[in-house]
Fold:
Amino acid sequence: MSEDARSDAAGLRLGILARLADAVALAETLREVGERGIAVLRQNDVDHPAVWLLGVGGEGLVENGDVPSTSAQAVHAADARALARAAAGSGRHEVHPLAGSAAGLAELQAQPVVEPGQDAPSLVLVVGLEQRLGADAEFADYLEVAAALLGAGFSGRRELAVVRQQSETLRELDVAKSAFLANVSHELRTPLALIAAPLADVLAAPADEVPERLRERLATVRGNVVRLTRMVDAMLDFSRMEAGRITPNLVELDVAALLAALAASFGPAIERAGLRFGTELHELPRPALLDRDIVERIVLNLLSNALKYTPRGSVDLALHPVRGGFEVSVADSGIGIAVRDQDRVFARFEQLPRHAQARSTEGAGIGLAMVRELSRLLGGDVDLRSAPGRGSTFTVRLPYVPPQARDAVEGTRSITPRGAEAFLADVEAWEAAGRPEPLAEAAPGERPRLLVVEDSADLSRYLAEVLADDYEVEFAGDGLQALAAARARRPDAVLSDVMMPGLDGFGLVAEVRADPLLRDLPVLLLSARAGQDAAAAGLEHGADDYLVKPFDVADLRARLASNILRAAERSAEGAWRRAVLSSLHEAVVLRDPDGRVTELNAAFTRLLGWSMDDGPFTPPYPWWPDPADDPGGVERIEAAARELALGRALEGDFPMRHRDGRTVWVRAAGGVVDVPGRGQTAVLTTFWDVTREHAAQDRRQEAARITADFATADALDHVVGVAVDGLHALFNGDSTVQVAGPGVVQTFTASGPIEVDLLPEAIAQRLTGTDEDEPPPEEPVDGILLVPPSAASGTRAWVQFSQPRVVSTDEQIVADMLAQAFALAVDRVLAVGELADKQVNLEKAIESHRMIGQAVGVLVERHRLTPSEAFQQLRRASQDRNVRLREIAQRVLETGLDPVDA
Structure:
């Protein structure tokens, strides 16, 4: 094939592929994808006058239409089916030559069609060619792209079909739910009416016919019947509205006058709540044709919502004319709504997470959804502007005349009227919930104390009445209040609702279980969620029992009693266990399998400073080392904890952090033990203080290093440097050393040589005294004197502690050994030459140490180091580079650089 022919063929194929992509993209169904695809591919009769789209079994998916029986499409249909089965089986491009074709075809080629995300082909594309191309790469690529486009088209239509089916299913469920709500609401009206009417008769009876306590209970029942009736009406209205069965009853309204009346009714309730209520109601230029009940419902819903979620500040109602209509806005300074949640507040049956500052958490989640739907029913809409902590503004924009006004029929059925009185009844319930009336307290010890945690004032009062004979009842409105009350005065049991603002029931259980002083407190949960899964969830969170509303009072009493009895038994067992642990001299920690510490004894507190009052304790524990300071120690402790969790025994020495910040070395031994009568296990670990043992070992190693440095020092300035630095590091104090030469005594500190007369008097006296002048070893001292037991020179040293402490026997032994090594080193380097040379050596040492002191001063000033850190850097640089300390100091003085770079 010539280059021109190849170019023409490539252009034709690209055009076919572009049209194929457009065709499958416009297809609506799977069948259309196949039909449109084959129609486009058959337009390329230059390459392939015959085209088949077949299933993996060779079955045809697209009809051939009116194809003559003598055409290639019909003559080679059987060959195409056979090749399709072969290509589907192999999963790759197949070629089948034809010999003596009556239809003029030279070969068939097949390409599997694999949809995106699938491994096996779902279809096979077969084409018939008039000339043999065989394994022509360009044609194979063309066929592969065509198959890929078909696969993508089929996949997209399948996904679209699934989405459409899901949408239709959701729509059907939505319709079914609305119908169910409507039917249930209708069915509830009759029993509600039969409850409400007799109640009204009884409550209307003379006072002497109905006892006061019974009258109070019946009044609570009537209030909840009214509330339930309102909820039923709201759900019925919402279902009717969704079904399009609410038609606004349009009448001329003076909107400003209507809003003023609503403000007059609702304003006192807002002000009683401690909020400022403002109105800005502008007269509109014309009356509006609206449904009075719908407008009232919109405005009262918004006012009620503002009061509910505004703990302090203000609520403002405004009316403004705008182009084509008017705006009603309700603004508050309340808790606000995050941007991500602002669409959710208008969704039906949607409730945002409960907020601790809300006046109530009750509601069905349809109030704001109804505001939006009712606004749209009148031809308007609602807008929200809000930010957390900065309040919210809801703005309803309505036209003067709704679009459906021309079709309105006077007296049509609108929503159920609900005036301001109904909303105010809800507000009164919130106010009552905020001031529950506890019963008079009984004498301590007379009855068990029961903490009731419930945000419904009616239910709280009812529980108080039915349980008052058996318990001293105290109330809390949410989990946080309950936790504070329990910590202030521990109850015998807690009875808590699950759904509450702020800290809910599950969160309260978690906090109680984590508090070392409350963790064994019995907690019973009350919830409206029924079923085994809900009960299991409550028990998994750590509750002792789970009751479903509505509950049987006798069952509640029985469960409370049994849980308090079991808690008392556990408390007695715990007190016995704590007494046993406290009697032990070794520090003991008891943990549950999750790592939470359940017991610490007094010996542990003496060892590391932490007690159960500082808890709760969970890994990483506060007595573990800081990972930044000792990562290796933390890794060893974590590895040991993992071994313990696997049931393996623990034994080893570990660094721990005392509460005051110092390091304490402990020897730990532990293992897993069974808790009697519980069917549970615990991890028991015992600690012994081995800090002195580790300190002595470290001290001996450091002393050995200093002794070796003394032995290798070949100059007096080197010996002095080793003494000043080494004694400071070993005894953790400021060291002053004295070197005696012929006719002269010189004193050195970390800052350089110093005259004895310039030393503090106490240190000067110590350097001239003997160790016999020091206090007894069992008394705290302000330093340690190093005097060699025998030496030819008057060499000695004093280390001043930062604060007085007792010097251990091991420290004194090390001090005596180093004093001897120091004196011997001084004598050795001075004994190298004659007496005159000794004098020169001493003067040289003085000059060298003066230079070292000046270098230390430079490092302190320029590099912000302490004198000790500066001297350590000089010494390390001297050792690392095998250069005398004097030379390093001289370079630092000349350059001002760090010793490493000098």
